[in-house]
Design goal:
Elements lengths: L1 E13 L12 E13 L11 H13 L4 E2 L4 H5 L4 H13 L7 E11 L2 E5 L2
Parallel strand pairs: 1-3
Antiparallel strand pairs: 1-2, 2-4, 4-5
Length: 122
């Protein structure tokens, strides 16, 4: 089994509904996002998945979040825009987009700060 990961980032604002503290107010972060893909084998070139292709798919998903008030997006009107739910949102959007035979989305990690990370996987 092989695992390949790429990282990208996006900037956005959110507020945590029902949270008692400063994060209840609207504020912003520069989130770092890492996605990991698992494959059982390699192609003729010895590659499991093309980094550029995976990065392009991740950038496409993050474009919907970048420089946005996350609370105003449909998914986050129903789900508090916590780092955990942001990771789940990205996972859901990317899951069908991987589209390579024998490849599966393993996990999505979202760093809200350099020391605070949430991970979603199925």
């Amino acid at each position: 089994m092989f695992e390949v990961s790429v990282r990208e980032s996006f900037s956005g604002a959110h507020r945590l509904k029902g949270y008692r503290g400063k994060c209840e107010n609207i504020h912003g972060h520069n989130w770092d996002v890492e996605v990991s893909i698992g494959t059982e084998g390699l192609d003729r070139q010895g590659i499991s998945i093309d980094f550029r292709s995976l990065r392009r798919k991740l950038k496409h998903v993050l474009a919907a979040l970048d420089h946005r008030d996350l609370n105003k997006l449909a998914f986050f009107r129903k789900n508090n825009p916590s780092a955990e739910n942001i990771a789940r949102y990205i996972y859901i959007k990317l899951k069908g987009a991987v589209g390579l035979k024998g490849a599966c989305l393993r996990r999505v990690s979202v760093w809200e700060t350099k020391d605070s990370r949430a991970v979603y996987f199925e």
